[in-house]
Amino acid sequence: MSDSPVPALDGAGGATPLATQPPLTKVELAKSSFCGLDLAARLDELASMGWESLDEATLTIHLKWLGIFFRPVTPGRFMVRLRLPNGLISADQLEVLAEVVDRCGDHGSADITTRQNIQLRGLLLEDMAPLMNCLERVGLTSRQSGHDNPRNITGNPLAGIDPDEFVDTRPLVGAIQNVLLGPDGPRNLPRKFNVAVGGAPDSFLLHNDLAYLPALWQGELGFTVMVGGFFSAQRNELAIPLGLWLRADELPLFTLAVLRHYERRGDRTTRQRSRVMYLIEALGIDAYRDEVLETLRSLGGGAGDAVLNDGPHLVSRAPRDICGVHPQKQPGLCWVGLNVPMGRLDSAALYRLVELARGYGSGELRFSESQNVLIVDVPTQRVAALLEEPLLRRFPSDPGPLLAEAVSCTGNHYCGLALIPTKSTALAVLQELEQRLVLPEALRNHWTGCPNACGQPYMGQIGLMGAKARKEGQMVEAVKIFLGGSMADDPQLAVLYEKAVPLSDLPDVLETLLVERFGASRRNTSA
Amino acid sequence: MVRRPGPSSVPVPLLAPELPFEPDPGALPAPGHADRWTWLLSLRRQRPLVLEPWLLAIEVGQLEPEADLLAVLADQLDADAAIRLLRFWLQNPERSPSLPNLVGRVRDTAVADLLAAALADGGEGRLDSVCQTLLLPLLGHQRRSGDFPLLQKLVLQPGPRQVRQSALEGLILGLSAWPLPALRSTLVSLASDLDPLLAGAAVDALARLPNARSPLSLLERSSLEASVAERLQRRLRALPTSSLLLLVHGRADGFIPPDIRSLAAELEQRRGAPVRLRALTDPSPLPPEPLGDSLSLIPLFLLPGGHVRHDVPAIATALRRQGPVRLLPFLGAWPCWQRALAFEVVQGAADRARPRWLHHPIAGRLAVRYLAHLERVTGAACIQTPEAHNDLVALAGDQRGGLMPLCLGASRLSECLVPLLGEAAAAPLLARPALREGLLQALEVLP
Ligand code: SF4
Questions:
Q1: Lesser CB count within 10 Å: N end or C end of chain B?
Q2: What digits encode the pLDDT tens for the residues B286-299?
Q3: Is the CB of A144 inside a 6 Å radius of any atom of ligand 1?
């Protein structure tokens, strides 16, 4: 393996002579100069210097260790990505975020992400030091939420209230985050790393680098380990079985072992080939598993007890549409799922959500991977009043079948790579189609502004990717259409169906597609 | 039901395998070409990129300055390159509206000079309002304090709404670079602007300045548009307030007169944060627990006597063992308090001879200097309270002018004076509405 980009494992396989190793990427060199977390104490000083005086690596790489993102499209107005393990947030915490967004005026907004997380936009560098203090005060953090770090850990958005759940994912997700952000956690991974814990029959998680799916072994409920899922511009993979079954209490240390192993062994010479799947392929799944278990042993874990299995699990259906009123497993209580169009929240909506969660529920809210919000613990007798609240005219609990399951990336308003304004295009097209069509059920549609695929177009029953096309001699904004994504028990990634449809033609093209392929019927327009 | 996993992997090859890449402007696929996005992604990875051919191709019209190309070049621009592209744009602003934002973020004196010249009256180009709107935030990015007057002028003077908003965005983006008093007063005036968007943004910017509570609290008394007033309330609620500990002399056994207690209660209500009172005469020990996250200790003493010089610092030292304490100067030293006393003297002298301050006995050079200063500022003589009651009676009967007790709340002195001067003239300072309100306002806006 002298030409392998995989660095040798300490004490297992001997050392690869340095001279034969390809050089590190520029990003790796910058990352190794210092840890971005060290900037936390210097935020005030950086703010008074002005962001323009920061070197490019600090601005575009190191600050992301604190969850702070420079946005070239809005220079001077930064984004902060939080961590919300399992998508949970309290009204008190959301109120702090509402204030942060509100003080950014027209520039401020908060986006619900596909990792059940929140991104705040429009902030100044001057806002960062006080913001970090506020976050800490209310038990939130934005630490290690960007760049080559373990990203927000997702779980069942209905954990603890779900009549269908096998296991409450909240404590597991929390424990994994604690270990990863703790003193032994990784600080410099070769690339980003997504971890998720499933708890219900609809916990589709195979797009994660490491996914724990609920599974039985000899009658005991635990987790089958799946590894290597990821989407990128170059390649898309669903996670594959690692061949292990773990008890719930083993997840935190095992996750740490996977990440510590990846930190040491992942490829740092080619960023396009550094996601963990490439490491798995380079080593072979069995050798990869052995090395991870070796790392687990070195961390004091009981790797000898690991149960080998070939990947059976209890996840059997596509994720539910969480919008609407649903009984919780606690008698007399409901969760109310609200559709947030394209996941975008302004300060007025944030303040109102805080009031609704306090006034009708227990003061807790949750975010789903479909970029929607849930108010939980609403007494049944209070539901009717909640449904009359003015905010629900903006964020309905009974959205149309297209808007309910629409997911979108940021688009060109904030992202320099976007080829189309993703969110506004999606909203306009879907609203138009909801007017024209009746659909038998919610239809998952994923919109993404460019081939980087942050909007996960391959997971949609319909996926739409920003592109350019020529129409009547003019270059115009367009989308590629992908079809066939499934998150059910036979998962499939969507494949390219239409190369470039100009946005002006899109409603008509999609209308035909929805009628012909998805059982939609046209509304009687004369009625 | 136990499920087997689906297909273990579903590779979707989207892009052709990478070929050796030539970063040549002539090879850039045309806008709309299927390969352009990938090509630009490869260009983005070229570090360092030789910029000259790209700049030249744009300048001679061989390449259109499309936003996707500029976004890639912008990552690697130095000041010279940024200036060339900005100059190109100033000649052809309609060709690429996204250019300034992408290119002008290079922070450099020459870039700042170019922007300032383009924006200043009579500068090269005389820009229309759309172009001004694009450039003003960039001038703010440059953070040169010398550009503050231009931004200030454009935000305050009547003009197109977008230009004023952009000038304000310029001020906000350079916030910590501007002269603070001038910035603060600019934002305070803007907060009352007829345009609620501008006014709201000014309130938000004020809330980010050091000691923001003070200007924001003062704004509360202005008449603001309803949405701006609500915004102001939200900003005030979110600002951290430190607790105040008002230190007073007190009477026997730590008794604090009702007028001082009511001042503290009203202050607490106005600030929305704890206000505690403590008398020097209080025999009980200081509370052992911290008095909040941060505490300001306010010595409400009127003269620099032994209490101010010895007792107050000792109390501050004791309190600092429990947490951070900010010790303010004694009240008598506050210029706003001295101005309020001067005003009271003028009011009191309106219908009769100028009154004199009757103060507690005090000794030492500092005290002498202070009393001389107070006489100068207020225009009223300072007279030490005589020890013998008869002397006090004689003083009260002196026709050369009235007497005003220099004591904050009701005290033995003010009570002695009531039969001699009458209720109104013998009133302690807190019983005088203008002084009380002035003190409340000064305490209210403390951070
Ligand atoms: S998919 Fe492309 S356009 Fe959308 S956020 Fe990601 S990089 Fe930006």
A1: N
A2: 766 656 667 899 99
A3: no
Give the pLDDT confidence score for residue B220 in this predicted structure: 86
Choose which residue among A448, A458, A459, A465 to substitute to test ligand 1 binding: the one with the highest number of ligand atoms within 8 A of its C-beta: A448
C-alpha gyration radius of chain B? 33
Return the higher-pLDDT residue of B417 and A111.
Answer: A111
Q: For B130-169, write each residue's pLDDT tens digit.
A: 889 999 999 998 989 999 999 999 999 998 999 999 999 9
Distances (CA, A) of B309 to B172, B248, B304: 43, 14, 7
Q: How far apart are CA B430 and CA B439, in angstroms?
A: 9
3-state class percentages of chain A: helix first, strand second, coil last, to nearest 5: 35, 25, 40
The answer to whether B144 contacts chain A (CB < 8 Å) is: no
Chain B residues lying within 8 Å of A216, measured CB to CB: 2
H/E run at residue B413: helix B412-421
| Burial grade of A382 (CB within 10 A; 0-12, 13-18, 19 or more) | middle
3-state secondary structure of B261: helix
- Per-residue pLDDT of B7-23, as tens digits, reads 444 344 344 444 567 78
Ligand 1 midpoint to CA A231 (Å)? 12
B363–A contact, CB cutoff 8 A:
no
Q: Which residue of B has its CA nearest to A125?
A: B173
Query: Is A182 among the residues known to form the active site?
Result: no
- Centre of ligand 1 from the C-alpha of residue B75, in Å: 17
Q: Is A415 in the pocket of ligand 1 (CB under 6 A)?
A: yes
3-state secondary structure of B158: coil
Chain A residues closer than 8 Å to B34 by CB = 467, 499-500
Check the CA dihedral A35-A38-A40-A46 and report its sign: negative
pLDDT at B217: 83
Task: Chunk chain A into consecutive blocks of 10 residues (it has 527) and report each block's average pLDDT, rounded to whole numbers.
Answer: 47 42 84 92 83 83 96 88 98 96 94 96 93 93 96 98 97 98 95 97 96 95 96 90 96 97 95 94 96 95 77 92 96 98 96 98 96 98 98 96 92 83 95 95 94 91 92 88 91 91 96 96 73
More confident residue, B82 or B11: B82
Given the residues A185, A266, A400, A455, select the one marked as catalytic: A455
Atom of ligand 1 at shortest range from CA of A416: 8
Q: Which residues contact A503 (CB under 8 A, 6 or more apart)?
A: A420, A425, A429, A476, A477, A478, A479
Mean pLDDT within B27-37:
83
For β-strands A344-345 and A220-227, DSSP reports them as: unpaired
Q: Delineate the domains of chain A, giving CATH numbers in brackets.
A: 18-24+159-308 (3.30.413.10), 324-394 (3.30.70.3340), 406-522 (3.30.413.10)
Of A77, A81, A83, A275, the active-site residue reads A81
Residue of chain B whose alpha carbon sits nearest to that of A501: B32
Give the C-alpha separation, A477 to A505, whole Å.
Answer: 10
Nearest residue, CB atoms, B11 vs list A102, A236, A416: A236
Q: Looking at chain A, how many residues does it have?
A: 527
Inform me whether the C-beta atom of residue B78 falls under 8 Å from chain A C-beta atoms. Answer: no
Quick one: which of A5, A235, A37 has its CA closest to A147? A37
DSSP structural state of residue A456: -
Rounded Cα–Cα distance for residues B307 and B37 (Å): 75
Comparing C-alpha atoms, which of A173, A3, A465 is closest to residue B12? A465
Contact flag B141-A52 (C-beta cutoff 8 Å): yes
* Active-site annotation holds for A334: no
Question: Using CA atoms, how far apart are residues A316 and A333, in angstroms rounded to an integer?
Answer: 26
Indicate the residue of B3, B172, B175 with minimum beta-carbon distance to A312. B3
Q: What SS3 class is residue A283? A: helix
Chains A and B: how many Cβ contacts under 8 Å? 146
